[in-house]
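ARCHIVE CARD
CATEGORY: sequence design from structure
SOURCE FIELD: tokenized fold
FIELD CONTENT:
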């Protein structure tokens, strides 16, 4: 049985806790905008892409030592014994480039799977999707340390034996490229596969990037501009996440930069290009849309950005069904900040949203956050926190759900202050979430 897709990027400036980020704001598009992850003693460097910052493992100062470090950003379950997770790893030492990280669960343990990386470039994978044991796709971005705005999409394909790179057309709908990234990939019925992200156009205006897997190649897909992004001086417009609803229908969500906050965008694909959803299917209550998960034909969940500056503001989660939208509220733990970064829907009430919550006075730097849907409301569920000690850091960046009782969440943790980051993997068995060791 194939899991419903749970692919999303953080349109809420990662774990930085910004209430209303915009596509041109520093940190937008980065799950790890918190600025506290350390990779092998090197604080994560920001990779600027035409106004977007995508965090890569480029070296800065070295306040913490030089051990290797890993962080998982996305996950996808094919079966209970076949689960993929992707992210980024910094090798030992401070000067080496960050490389993609791919791990696979075989029913007994997690193992690292070899992944190619462009020579000399900082590279990361942010999303993965599979339709069986012999077909999977992972996407992210790469960029040279000396020219961070010259990023390029990174796309890998699993054919059953190894991961291989596949070229991606990066001109999107934005004309001449000033740097491009892929944030999300999704696969569904009929082996329909899409990936979305953003591309820098002339004058630094961000535009959406959408591609579809056809006959072993990525091909560009046109994206129609929503009304809010049109005009003599078009507003920045990006896509953060995509889900395949059926062999003939897909949906992508993202953000248009508004005057004071991000405005939600929902784009539908029904066989040709993506086009804006009817106004009734979009609500400004959502703010920036950050993640999406299929919950059935013509139905999906999406995560929005917090709507107010208060740390106790509820976190918006929307349900779309047959064109109608309903906004629910996931409870905020009331910390300095809280953010949900990814959502997944299995069967029934096996629906999850994960992220992180920020420091309380005298408490740890950050803690993982898991919210579950019980059929009526969202409720916070106890989550593993291996970095619970004072000054340590936990967080979850990706989640995937399978059937009624199986789910996986991935992210990273630091065992102590200023320590290397290790993969954080948690498993739901129908009763509770428990940490599972990962290399």
């Amino acid at each position: 049985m194939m899991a419903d897709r749970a692919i999303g990027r953080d349109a809420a400036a990662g774990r930085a806790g910004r209430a209303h980020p915009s596509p041109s704001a520093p940190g937008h598009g980065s799950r790890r905008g918190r600025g506290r992850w350390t990779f092998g003693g090197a604080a994560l460097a920001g990779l600027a892409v035409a106004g977007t910052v995508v965090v890569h493992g480029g070296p800065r100062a070295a306040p913490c030592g030089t051990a290797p470090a890993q962080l998982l950003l996305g996950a996808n379950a094919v079966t209970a014994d076949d689960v993929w997770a992707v992210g980024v790893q910094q090798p030992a030492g401070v000067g080496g480039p960050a490389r993609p990280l791919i791990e696979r669960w075989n029913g007994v343990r997690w193992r690292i799977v070899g992944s190619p990386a462009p020579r000399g470039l900082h590279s990361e994978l942010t999303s993965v999707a599979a339709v069986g044991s012999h077909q999977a796709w992972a996407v992210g971005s790469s960029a040279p340390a000396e020219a961070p705005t010259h990023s390029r999409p990174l796309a890998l394909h699993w054919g059953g034996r190894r991961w291989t790179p596949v070229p991606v057309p990066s001109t999107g709908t934005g004309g001449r490229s000033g740097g491009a990234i892929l944030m999300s990939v999704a696969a569904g019925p009929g082996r329909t596969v899409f990936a979305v992200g953003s591309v820098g156009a002339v004058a630094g205006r961000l535009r959406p990037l959408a591609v579809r897997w056809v006959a072993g190649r990525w091909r560009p897909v046109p994206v129609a501009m929503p009304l809010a992004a049109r005009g003599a001086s078009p507003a920045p417009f990006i896509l953060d996440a995509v889900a395949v609803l059926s062999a003939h229908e897909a949906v992508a969500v993202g953000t248009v930069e508004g005057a004071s906050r991000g405005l939600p965008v929902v784009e539908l694909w029904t066989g040709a290009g993506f086009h804006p959803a009817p106004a009734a299917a979009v609500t400004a209550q959502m703010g920036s849309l950050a993640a999406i998960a299929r919950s059935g034909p013509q139905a999906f969940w999406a995560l929005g950005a917090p709507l107010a500056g208060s740390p106790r503001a509820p976190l918006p989660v929307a349900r779309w069904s047959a064109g109608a939208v309903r906004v629910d509220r996931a409870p905020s733990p009331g910390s300095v900040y809280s953010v949900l970064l990814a959502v997944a829907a299995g069967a029934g009430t096996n629906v999850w949203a994960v992220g992180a919550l920020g420091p309380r006075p005298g408490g740890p730097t950050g803690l993982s956050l898991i919210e579950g849907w019980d059929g009526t409301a969202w409720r916070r569920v106890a989550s593993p926190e291996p970095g619970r000690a004072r000054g340590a850091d936990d967080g979850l960046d990706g989640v995937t759900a399978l059937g009624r009782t199986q789910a996986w969440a991935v992210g990273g943790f630091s065992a102590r202050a200023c320590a290397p980051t290790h993969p954080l993997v948690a498993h739901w068995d129908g009763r509770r979430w428990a940490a599972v060791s990962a290399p």
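CARD ANNOTATION: Residues 1-63, 172-177 have pLDDT under 50 and may be disordered. The two ends are 26 Å apart (CA to CA).
SHELF: design records, drawer C
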